[in-house]
Amino acid sequence: DKKIIASDEFSLGGSKWEIDSPMDVYVLDGHLVFNKAKTSQKQPTAYAKNVAFDNAEFSFDLRLVRGSAFSAVFRKKDASTYYQLNITTQGRFTLQKRVLGAPLKTIAGGDGSISTNKASNIHITLLGSSIKVHCDNALVIDAVDYSSLSGGIGFDGNDTLSYVDNVLVYKYAATDYNIEVVDPNAKPHAKLY
C-alpha cells in the first residue's frame, strides 16, 4: 500500500509552499506558475513546507511554455545537499546531485516526450539507491546512486514560463518493499521492511 503524505492541486492557493520570489512564482487558475521577470535577481523557486522523505514516489504535472529548463528538486536536506532533475523544453531529462555544496554531479540522463505548452506527468520513484523517472508513463531515467540523502521537495522555474499542478508524494507501507545495498563500496544502509 502507498499512503499520500503530501498533495496539492493549488485550488486553495500556495500556502503549502515557501515561495522565494512572489513576483515570479504565484498561483493562478489552480496552477503554480513560474514566470521569471527579466529584471528579477532571484531564482523563481517554491519548496513544500514540512515535507521530507527518503523512500517515496513524487509526481506532478508540468507544462513548459517557454524558456530552456525547469528543475524539480527532491531529497533536499538544505541549500547545499539535494537531487535535481532538469527538464528542458526539448524533452531532455538530466538527474544531478549536490552534496555539501560541491558542484552538481550528473548521475544520468534521458529523453522524454515533453511538448511545449502541453502538460506532461512527471513521476519520480525513490527506493533506496534506485531513482527512476517516468514522463507520461515512459521510463526516461533508471539510475542508481548510493548516497543516503533524504529531505524535501521543490521546484526551480529557472528562466521558464511553466505551470505545475497535481503534486503528489506517496510513502510506501513498511511491507511494500525490502531493499538492501549490494554495492560493497557503498556506505551501509539499513534494510527497509
Could you please describe the fold and organization of this structure?
- The protein is mostly beta strands.
- Helices cover 0% and strands 54% of the residues.
- The chain has no helices and 15 strands.
- It has strands spanning 2-8, 17-19, 25-28, 31-35, 45-48, 56-66, 69-78, 81-88, 92-98, 105-111, 120-127, 130-135, 138-144, 152-156, 161-172.
- The strands form 2 sheets. Strands 1, 3, 4, 6, 11, 12, 13 and 15 form an 8-stranded antiparallel sheet that branches.
- Strand 7 (69-78) and strand 8 form a beta hairpin.
- It starts with a strand and ends in a 21-residue tail after the last strand.
- Residues 174-193 have low confidence and may be disordered.
Outline the fold blueprint.
Blueprint: E1 2-8, E2 17-19, E3 25-28, E4 31-35, E5 45-48, E6 56-66, E7 69-78, E8 81-88, E9 92-98, E10 105-111, E11 120-127, E12 130-135, E13 138-144, E14 152-156, E15 161-172
Antiparallel strand pairs: 1-15, 2-5, 3-4, 4-15, 5-14, 6-11, 6-15, 7-8, 7-14, 8-9, 9-10, 11-12, 12-13
Summed up:
The protein is mostly beta strands.
Number of strands: 15
Contiguous helical run count: 0
Tell me the helix content.
Answer: under 10%
Largest sheet: 8 strands, antiparallel
Radius of gyration: 16 Å
Uncertain parts: 174-193
**First-to-last CA distance:** 13 Å
Sheet-strand content, in percent, reads: over 45%
| Coarse structural class | mainly beta
Order of helices and strands: EEEEEEEEEEEEEEE
Shape: globular
The average pLDDT value, as a whole number, equals 81
